[in-house]
Amino acid sequence: MTTQIEAPSLPVPSEPPERPLQAGEDEARHDEGRRTFMKLAAASGVMAGLSGCSVSLDEFLQKHFKELKGEELKKVLARLEAKQKARWGQSVRIGTEAAQEGVEFGYGLDISRCVGCRRCVYACVQENNQSRESPQIHWIRVLEMDKAHGVDLAHAEVYYDPATVPQPGKFYFPVQCQQCRNPPCVKACPTQATWKEKDGIVVIDYDWCIGCRCCMSACPYGARHFTFAEPTLPAGELNPDQHYLGNRPRPKGVVEKCTFCIQRARNGRYTACVEVCPVGARKFGNLLDPESEIRKVMETKRVFIFKEELATHPQFYYFYAS
Amino acid sequence: MAQVDVQASKSLAALATALALTAGPARAGAPPSAAPPPKKAPLVQVQATTPPFSDGIFPCSTCHDGTQKVKTERRKLDFHDDQQDVLAHGAERWCLDCHDAQNRDLLRSASGQPIPFTESYRLCGQCHGDKYRDWRVGVHGKRVGMWNGEKTYFLCVNCHNPHTPRWKGVKDEVVEGKRIVSPTLELLQPEPRPRRPEEMRK
């Protein structure tokens, strides 16, 4: 979306470089004719482009989320909501709640409690309108590891499938976006479609993402996921409580990831994975509030961060409560 | 490492505030540099509904109505097989360590203080002090609701069967509009494994 194609109504910012004139050619006439030609070409190019991929002019010219303000933002949200209504037959609300002052989110995961039941994986899918089957997208991946080896990715299995959990000799290590303070994905993005918010959540403007997947190769946690095919989300399973930077349904060809359930967290609620966890292994709260659960974890438990040597400085902590 | 950085930035912020303060009257008109404290909703904590008793067992005073003689010696009972068969709570535990001998509708602390069933965590906390401390600040156990407001906290007995406290699994049901979590004696089944990329290509 960053490639600036000039729409007919927009002023031409600067003249394209001149081609040297042929001998005997009428300068003025050539110049005028060329300009008209360029305008027509641009106009027809845009129209051809738009008719080819069913993108309206409004969508095509939509600004980056950070530049959307007031009426313009309202119009964009109304259009996005109407589009969902047409597709799923359901009224939705797309929020744009900003980061709260004095809040820095922190997440704690108790490795000594997790039993690997994957309830979090599917609660996340439901809450965040992920594609269900083909392509199946999971923002949380639970790794089964050997107690004998400790946290070692060489001995990790994501496709474990026993009848019951936990299995003897195994422990379980869920991985999702670590909301790094020094996020490699943000540095890798060529279009600034992903950035870190004040409360620590790394977000994506899905309408600004060009799907180049540079962020995915930059992320050391495998936390970003690409929609290779048209997402599958059956009618009736759409979560209508949405955030522009969070769980609104993504189009094909963009990158998505965990946002600490931004649509919940920014309204004071626990994330979906925290609420579903049957062992209470997941803790979430404000790192700047000394009374929060996450601060009590940081102060009293053995806490570590995943791939510390990469200096990504996550806001996601693993800990052992016992 | 991350922790160190947080602390470093905090002490920097403190230093900056101190410098701003020492600048004194010259800066009196300037707006305060510190960010306003976050708006905090009043902390309301709601206790989760305790799991249901076994069918027809409560109130205990229906049978233990004070007419029978109370025998307090440790023994195998001819009744309460449901509880006795699964009892695996330390080596030497038996009924009247926790249940009140005089009023069976109550529990009883080691010091003889009566404790209602809805406050059983006080009884558990007598021995499991470390877990009790963690649970009170939200590190052990589960809470749902708002991270900065009203939240529901689960009790020991929502996840641990007091007669067989080792955690195996929980089931979640809605009874009369109330969400009730109770412990089970079976291990949990995991949700389906993710699909492999080659399975999605088909």
Architecture blueprint of SSEs:
The complex is a heterodimer of chains A (322) and B (202).
Chain A: H1 27-53, H2 57-60, H3 70-88, E1 93-95, E2 105-110, H4 119-127, E3 141-146, E4 156-157, E5 170-175, H5 184-188, E6 194-196, E7 202-204, H6 214-218, E8 225-226, E9 241-243, E10 255-256, H7 262-265, H8 272-276, E11 282-286, H9 293-300, E12 302-304, E13 316-320
Parallel strand pairs in A: 1-9, 2-13
Antiparallel strand pairs in A: 2-11, 3-4, 3-5, 6-7, 8-10, 12-13
Chain B: H1 2-22, E1 45-47, H2 81-86, E2 106-108, E3 114-116, H3 120-127, H4 129-136, E4 143-145, E5 151-153, H5 156-159, E6 169-175, E7 178-184, H6 197-201
Parallel strand pairs in B: 1-5
Antiparallel strand pairs in B: 2-3, 4-5, 6-7
Helix pairs in contact in B: 3-4
Features:
heterodimer, A: 322 residues, alpha+beta, 2 domains, 4-stranded mixed sheet, 9 helices, 13 strands, B: 202 residues, 3-stranded mixed sheet, 7 strands, 26% helix
Shape of chain A: globular
The chain-level mean pLDDT of chain B equals: 79
Question: Could you name the ranges of chain B where pLDDT drops below 50 across 5 or more consecutive residues?
Answer: 1-33
What CATH first level of the largest domain in chain A would be assigned?
Alpha Beta
Q: In terms of structural class, how would the helical and strand content of chain A be classed? A: alpha+beta
Helix content of chain A: 25-40%
Main interface: chain pair and counts: A-B, 61 and 47 residues
Record the strand order, biggest sheet of chain B: 1-5-4
CATH topology of the largest domain in chain A: Alpha-Beta Plaits
Share of β-strand residues of chain A: 15-25%
Span between termini of chain B: 45 Å
Give the count of helical stretches of chain B. Answer: 6
Could you report the average pLDDT of chain A, rounded to the nearest whole number? 88
